[in-house]
Fold this protein.
Amino acid sequence: MSMDDETDSRYTTGNIAKLTGVSVRTVQYYDAKGLLIPNEISDGGRRLYGTAEVERMRVILFLKGLGFKLEQIRSILSDERPERVLVDLLDQQTASLQSGIAEQKQRLDDCLQLRKALTVSASDFVSPTLTDMATVMNTTTTHSLHTTYLVMLAIGLPATLLQIVCLVIGVMTDVWWPLPVAVLLAIALAVAATKYYRSRVQYLCPACHETFQPGMREFVFAAHTPKTRKLTCPHCGHRGHCMELSI
């Protein structure tokens, strides 16, 4: 097709839809919004467009694909220097998308955390209700549990290393008195770590859906899984595996 042919080309709504890969209704929508204006209207009432309108439609679809709203697209297309407007809007759109990515990532983390919290192996654990799930999402965060685990590791690891060092010293030098001292220190640290851990968690009763903290004795000796502990609820008296939540 020659340049003159392109200049004289006339396209119907259906032609533009086919050339740009959208539905006729989409073309009609942008026409109705004033973003796509026909060159002429035939005697039969058909709306006819030129080559420039085909390219304009492609630009509209491209900008729409970037997430721009109709008014933003209108501002770009109507400005004498569309590149300048586009740069400003791209900066705004980039900031908005980055914020959206952060929000989506947080939602993903919440979903993964909830899924992990609901994965239990205890056969007598009662399936949680939506209220329980909301409680989990509002009280259990990856960050808070991660911090608790790091503190526990910081308490337990030095005690373990100290016992290993004292054992090695005993084997190599036949001096054994540091080992019982290290064991006593490890016991003291274990008690401190247990008290700290208990102070940082609470449990969700699957029967009455109330949260509570068990006594130290029950906490220490209760059967447990990585995410639950078999406890007696002080609110309703139910005994079973209760979901562990961070405070």
